[in-house]
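Researcher: We're reviewing a set of sequences before deciding which ones to prioritize for further study. For each one, I'd like a predicted 3D structure that I can look through quickly. This is DUF4494 domain-containing protein. If possible, include the structure in token form so it fits the rest of the review sheet.
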Amino acid sequence: MAMHTWFECKIRYEKTMENGMQKKVTEPYLV
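Model: Here's the predicted structure for DUF4494 domain-containing protein, in token form for your review sheet.
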């Protein structure tokens, strides 16, 4: 559970960096 949450945060962070502040990624990702 904790690892899944960490992965979600990591993906959100990377997506945000890719898109910059152009788009906020809030949708959950299933790994």
